[in-house]
Prior knowledge:
- The chain is α/β, with parallel strands linked by helices.
- It has one domain (6-237): Rossmann fold.
- The chain contains 8 helices and 7 strands.
- It has helices at 11-26, 101-114, 129-146, 151-159, 164-173, 189-201, 206-211, 215-222, and strands spanning 34-37, 52-56, 70-74, 87-93, 115-126, 181-188, 229-237.
- The protein is globular.
- The two termini are 24 Å apart.
Amino acid sequence: MRFPDRDKFNLDSALRYQPIMERIEKSKWKNKPILEIGSGASGISDYYQGEVIGVDSDFAKTGTKKNTNIKYVEGLSDNLPFNNETFYLVVCLDTLEHLEKKLRIKTIRELIRVTKKGGIIYLGFPTGNLSEKYEIKLNNAFKRINHKNHLWLIEHRKYGLPNYRRILSAIKNLGIPKEKIEILENVNIFIWFIMHMLFTVYPESFFSRILKYAYLPIFFIAKIHLPPFYRIIFVINK
Length: 238
């Protein structure tokens, strides 16, 4: 797993992609293009040296510098502009919670449709009552400082965090047998909350600015695998 330069490094993003990159680098598809749904300006291309096709409805929202290995395709997750069975590697992280519930199953169906037989889908999202509770705490802290709601946290409140049991049931109903689905738990909730208090609510504090210079040691500390977890990632083998 490669890392972007320090001025572009994002701890939340690195922790999100780390378990996926570990598996991609060990897979037989490690040199294949990655299709990422909801990639924003860079997405997994910050950590992958190969080709990335990023699909998003608005690439300007994230505003980070574009990498040379990502190609933008404007589109919607529930109606992807690709033929059936086009990609061996498909990634969709922290996107379902920004969609209306009726569009989530359509999106999963599209992810499965464009994945080749034998390919792998990585589908991740925050889930659970505790994650929701700490998102509310974080948004309240952000609002006290900035006098407005945080854009993506308020979208999570609007649409509700996905229920992983319902998503698992939907995946199986779309023809993927249980034995081809692996569930990964990702990022301790309390580490997630502290991380965002430092870098989202108080990004210009003296402590936060100092920590940005030690981003790699912080990454290896923060990825410690202890419950409770903020996010889960389904690894779906088609």
